[in-house]
Amino acid sequence: MVIRSAFLFVCLLLVTTAGYDSHAQDSQNGKRTLSVTGNGKADAAPDVAYLTLSVETLAKNASQAVKDNAETTNKVIQAIKSKLGKNDKVSTAGYSLTPVHEYNNQTNKTDFKGYRASNRIIVEAHNLKEIGNIIDATADAGLNNIESLSFDTTKRDDFRREALTRAVNDAKTTAETLAKAAGVKITRILQLSPSFDYPVPVYRDYAFAKEAAPAAPPTPIEPGDISVSASVNIVFEIE
C-alpha cells in the first residue's frame, strides 16, 4: 500500500514538472509585440487634364449624317489644335452611326427620324489654364456635346512615396507614445505592411448647349487638388 502511494506521488510529480517546463519554454520563445497602424496623405496639384468631347449630327439619310459629322469634327479638331501645346494630344476615340426612332403618342407608332453620327474626341492638355479656351473654341467650331473633364497628376509615384513616408512616421510616433505610456521599450520592427489608396482623378461635368449666347464670358475652369493616401501596419518587438 505504501509502495503504491509512493509510485502515484512520483507520477504526479513528473506530470507537474513536465507541465511547468513546457510553460517556461513557451514564455522564453514567445515575443512581446506592439502593432500600430499609421496613415499619411499628400495633396497633389493636378498637372494634366483629360477632356472628352463628341460631335453629333442628325440627318435624314446615313450618308448625309456621316458627311456633316466629318465636316464638323474636322473643324473642332483644328480649333483644338490651335490651342494645344507641344506636349498636348488630341485623338478620336470612337465613332458610331445609328438610326433614330421616336415614339409618336398621337399615332401610337414609332417614327423614323433619320441617322445620328457621333464622333468622340479625347484631348490631353498639360496647360490647365487653356482648358476654358479650348472648350470655347470647340463651341465656336460646332461642338455640341462635352462628355467629361477630369484632372490628374503625372507624378503619382512621387506623391505616393511622400504619403508612405508620412504614414511610417505616424506609426512610429504612435508606437513610441504607447511604449512610453506602458513603460516598455521598442527593440526592433518585426513586420511592416504598406497599402495605398491610388489617387482618383477629379471630375467636372458640364451641361453644354450649342445654342449658348455668343457673348457669354469665357468658361471658368478651377481644378482642385488630388489626395494621395497611404497606410502602413507595423509590428514592433518590445521588452
Short description:
The protein is of the alpha+beta class. The chain has helices spanning 2-29, 62-81, 131-141, 156-182, and strands at residues 32-44, 48-59, 89-104, 109-125, 146-152, 186-197, 202-204, 226-238. It folds into 2 domains: 31-44 and 154-205 and 221-239, Translation Initiation Factor IF3 (2-Layer Sandwich); 48-152, Alpha-Beta Plaits (2-Layer Sandwich), CATH 3.30.70.
What's the CATH C level of the largest domain? Answer: Alpha Beta
Alpha-carbon distance between the termini? 52 Å
Largest sheet: 5 strands, antiparallel
Biggest sheet, strands in spatial order? 3-4-2-5-7
- Find the count of extended strands (DSSP E, 2+ residues): 8
Q: Helicity level, as a percent range?
A: 25-40%
Query: What is the fourth-level CATH superfamily of the largest domain?
Result: Protein of unknown function (DUF541), domain 2
Listing every helix as H and every strand as E from the N terminus to the C terminus, the arrangement reads HEEHEEHEHEEE
How many individual domains? 2
Please work out how many helical segments DSSP would assign. 4
Q: Pick out the low-confidence regions.
A: 1-29, 209-215
Shape: elongated
CATH topology tier name of the largest domain: Alpha-Beta Plaits
What multimeric state do the chains show?
single chain
Instruction: Tell me the CATH architecture of the largest domain.
Output: 2-Layer Sandwich
SSE-based structural type: alpha+beta
Approximate strand percentage:
35-45%
Q: Round the Cα radius of gyration to an integer and report it.
A: 34 Å
Mean pLDDT, to the nearest integer, reads: 82
